[in-house]
Amino acid sequence: MARRGWRDTGSAIKARDMTDSLTIRRPDDWHVHLRDGDMLKAVVGHTARQFARAIVMPNLTPPVTNVALANDYRTRILAALPDEADFTPLMTCYLTNNTDPEEVRRGFESGAFTACKLYPAGATTNSDSGVTDVANIRGVLEVMAEIGMVLCVHGEVTNADVDIFDREAVFIDRVLAPLLKDLPTLKVVFEHLTSEEGVSFVESAADNVAATITPQHLHINRNAMLVGGMRPHAYCLPVAKREKHRLALRRAATSGSAKFFLGTDSAPHQREAKESACGCAGIFNAPFALESYLAVFEEEHALDKFEGFASLHGPQFYGLPVNEERVTLERRDCSVPALIDAGDAQLVPFHAEQTLRWQLAD
Ligand code: NCD
Ligand code: ZN
Fold first, then answer.
1. How far apart are CA 28 and CA 54, in angstroms?
2. Angle CA(266)–CA(270)–CA(273) in degrees, nearest 5?
3. What does pTM read for this prediction?
4. Quick one: which of 39, 184, 307, 317 has the fewest CB in 10 Å?
5. What is the position in ligand 1's atom list of the atom closest to the CA of 237?
6. pLDDT (tens digit per residue) in 112-161
7. Cβ-contact 131, 96 below 8 angstroms
8. Do the bridges between strand 115-118 and strand 150-153 make them parallel or antiparallel, or are there none, so unpaired?
9. Distance 12 CA to ligand 2 centre (A)
10. Distance (Å, rounded) from C-alpha 352 to C-alpha 44?
């Protein structure tokens, strides 16, 4: 009765809430780890099935630090795609203390690079060659501000005296705020935002500052990692934080603000590397990323904000065209398997053995 009644009254919002399918422009993933070799072959099809384009992280060993390495990596990604895939990798340049500003300019102008990636040295997986002090890349950042190139930032300090749950908030005070004061027009994506402080900072910053949000940080807080036993498959960096931070992220993602957009940070590690005495950071969410995000938007009664977050705000910030194709998500149970084969290895996906309520139609 309620369902028909709402439709009959013609209330657009209520009718949308009751919808059984959602058709939107094809989404993009503005932060993904596709890895290399056999792992690349195993995971790239999952991202290509869900997304038209993706910002591909450069933290390989060795990292993707110049145009030649980025072009070679793009070729390997394209070769690893399933035949029917329609997917464009957008490459990033891994910044080191020695990055040449003119290499960055050349790479951006030729289309080899879409963005640069700042990893504070030691902050996360394969970040040993990262930047030890942003003063060392001042020349690169100046060129980027001049040419309008996006800086993707892993926003955590690595100082031993800073608690791991505070590393994002401290990064804002010690690094990001001073950097934007120094270069106020630099385009910055504060990646995989995990804190209330991060949300407030991005909201109050100028339009050249935006953020990506992962599905896991919208679904889980730190209890998911630590209550009832240590759960390595809920461990990623930046680490999931208290519930109030998760709620701030949900508000930001579903607010409709063009400053927040989709970036999965899908980061596969084989099962043994996660289930170990020193388990790797990273959650593999690529296979059901859209379904995972959509669950959040539905819970927040914000299905009408999903297309902006998934398909419009990202291209708008990067100055790229939106995708013309459409995809449909249907309200249909979707069982996430316990394991996903990756050649000889196995991956445990985010939401393993859970049921999600939406499914991307083929
Ligand atoms: C990423 C990885 O494994 O490459 N891990 C993660 O926990 N997110 C690196 C990163 O983005 O921090
Ligand atoms: Zn990442």
1. 6
2. 110
3. 0.94
4. 184
5. 7
6. 999 999 999 988 888 889 999 999 999 999 999 999 999 999 999 999 99
7. yes
8. parallel
9. 37
10. 19
Residue to probe by mutation, ligand 1, list 36, 40, 55, 59, most atoms within 8 Å of CB: 59
Continuous H helices in the chain = 2-9, 12-17, 37-50, 67-80, 101-110, 138-147, 167-171, 177-182, 196-204, 215-219, 223-226, 243-253, 271-274, 289-299, 306-307, 313-318
Identify whether the C-beta of residue 154 lies closer than 8 Å to the C-beta of residue 127: yes
- Burial class of residue 207, CB neighbours in 10 A (0-12, 13-18, 19+): exposed
Residues, CB-to-ion distance under 5 Å, ligand 2: 265
Residues touching ligand 1 (Cβ under 6 Å) are: 33, 59, 124-125, 154, 236-237, 265, 267, 281-282
Look at residue 223 and tell me whether its pLDDT is greater than 80: yes
Residue 242 CB neighbour total at 10 angstroms: 14
- Tell how far the Cα of 343 is from the centroid of ligand 2, in angstroms: 22
Instruction: Tell the residue number behind the tokens 């590690």, with chain if given.
Output: 269
Return the structure tokens found at 16. 């949308």
Runs of H (alpha helix) within 157-214: 167-171, 177-182, 196-204
